[in-house]
Design a protein that fits this description.
InterPro entries: AA/rel_permease1, APC_superfamily
Pfam families: AA_permease_2 (PF13520)
Order of helices and strands: HHHHHHHHHHHHHHHHHH
Number of domains: 1
Largest sheet: none
GO molecular function: transmembrane transporter activity
CATH architecture: Up-down Bundle
Protein name: APC family permease
Strand content: under 5%
Membrane topology: Multi-pass membrane protein
Number of helices: 18
Helix content: 55-70%
CATH superfamily: Amino acid/polyamine transporter I
Shape: globular
Length: 454
């Protein structure tokens, strides 16, 4: 057994270690892939409308507060991501710095997020294909998931540039919406800091803060850069740069159109239809083009999510979280494409099935899981500067430990403001996961050995 039972470079069963992922991307490729996961256009058209319904003109304020909070969260991810450059992402960081049980619970939280977010996004594609063909949202979402799974089996470097092309199309759609929104501005900028639903009914600060869980969901993809750490060249340099660049660009790309829509002549924001708005502002032809761009953006985002999420499942198999046959299957890497093909299929097919679950059932739990996951990372980084974790190549955040403490306090408040149902469902999943730890993983010293490749 290795000196630290939470860490291992090889298996402890005498078998050969799984084939490593190929280091083939740098900051540019990693940023393109991660930006595509944030997918500002699909976030704008799929995730933001429910925020408008709840927060009205306070939507931009909620997203701005979420971005500000995410700066501190990005610092936490950047420091831990360079300290522990593993495809396991959050769970590898927490296991290495804290302990195996904390790492296991973090894995479960991250797995809730990575399983549920892609179907929520994919289901939205049907609405944007409507100018050409009317499809059942669940069937369309499942088809997008299956096609993305096939794409996810390809070489990562190739996927980085394919998704880069789709990202450019997506950004064009965002620019069009922003320009049209500002061109039809009818509200005073004061409404951005004086939230209301209809110009009369005010929205309180407590409501805006409660909406931060969904607002964090809108911009949360920046953190997924850490899942690509084992495929980045010089990860001790590239991981932090990719995380911070992605957050900065995505914040700009999401906030600008949200402000434009808020200030525009849209009538009531409570029931705003963004596609219909574009048509009313520009005509049906441009509206159709924008809708198809959004559909392409959704497909692009789902491809990247499948790629990144499969790496987490691959890492869990390599780190021996499951019975041996499952571990061996999940840690198989294609000799042709360098991708974990079994893990990719498991993730993609599972998410295709989840497209048939009502979106409302999934969204609230995802918001709670995202906040809890960020809370775990902020708590972990407080212990990352002990002597055992000091390294010459680790990126160090400015303002430590004040920044993570502020993040912990803010996220803790946001978490307790969520609904009892969403908190209860998430807690139930964690209880079941805790039982798996207690009766299976804890009793086996050769399980859950987190690997951090050199």
């Amino acid at each position: 057994m290795p000196p630290n039972p939470a860490l291992a470079e090889t298996t402890t069963t005498g078998t050969a270690a799984p084939r490593k992922l190929t280091r083939s991307i740098g900051v540019t490729g990693g940023t393109l892939l991660t930006l595509s996961c944030v997918t500002p256009a699909s976030s704008l058209f799929v995730l933001v409308p429910p925020l408008f319904a709840d927060l009205g003109t306070g939507t931009a304020l909620a997203i701005a507060l979420a971005v500000l909070l995410c700066v501190g969260i990005a610092f936490c991810y950047s420091e831990l991501g360079t300290l522990v450059p593993s495809a396991g992402g959050e769970y590898a960081m927490v296991t290495t710095v804290l302990n195996r049980f904390a790492g296991w619970i973090t894995f479960v939280l991250s797995f809730i997020v990575i399983l549920v977010v892609p179907p929520i996004i994919a289901i939205g594609v049907a609405g944007y294909l409507a100018p050409l063909v009317h499809l059942d949202p669940s069937l369309a979402g499942a088809a997008v998931m299956l096609a993305s799974t096939v794409m996810g089996l390809a070489n990562l470097r190739s996927n980085a540039w394919i998704t880069g092309v789709f990202l450019a199309i997506e950004l064009i759609a965002v620019v069009v919406v922003s320009v049209l929104g500002f061109a039809h501005a009818d509200r005073s900028p004061a409404v951005l800091v004086r939230p209301s639903l209809d110009g009369v009914s005010g929205v309180g600060l407590v409501t805006v803060i409660a909406g931060l869980a969904v607002a964090l969901f809108v911009v949360q993809g920046f953190s997924t850069a850490v899942y690509l750490a084992e495929e980045m060249r010089e990860p001790h340099r590239t991981v932090s740069r990719t995380v911070l660049w992605t957050l900065g660009i995505s914040a700009l790309v999401i906030l600008v159109p949200v402000v434009a829509i808020t200030l525009a002549d849209t009538g009531s924001l409570g029931d705003v239809d963004l596609t219909a708005l574009v048509v009313s502002w520009s005509g049906s032809t441009l509206g159709t083009v924008v809708s198809l761009c959004i559909a392409a953006a959704i497909g692009n985002a789902v491809i990247v999510m499948v790629i990144q999420n499969s790496r987490v499942l691959y890492a869990s198999g390599r780190d021996r979280a499951w019975p041996d046959p499952v571990n061996r299957a999940l840690s198989v890497v294609s000799s042709r494409f360098g991708s974990p093909w079994v893990a990719t299929l498991v993730v993609g097919l599972s998410e295709a099935v989840l497209c048939f679950v009502p979106v409302d059932t999934l969204s609230g739990v995802t918001g709670v899981a995202v906040v809890a996951l960020y809370l775990a990372i902020a708590l972990t980084v407080l212990g990352a500067r002990r002597a055992a974790h000091r390294g010459p190549h680790v990126w160090r955040m400015p303002g430590w430990p004040v920044v993570p403490v502020v993040v912990v306090l803010a996220l803790g408040y946001v978490l307790v403001e969520q609904t009892a149902l969403d908190l209860g469902i998430t807690a139930a999943v964690l209880v079941v996961s805790g039982a798996y730890w207690l009766f299976y993983l804890r009793r086996r010293a050769d399980r859950w050995l987190v690997t951090v490749p050199g």
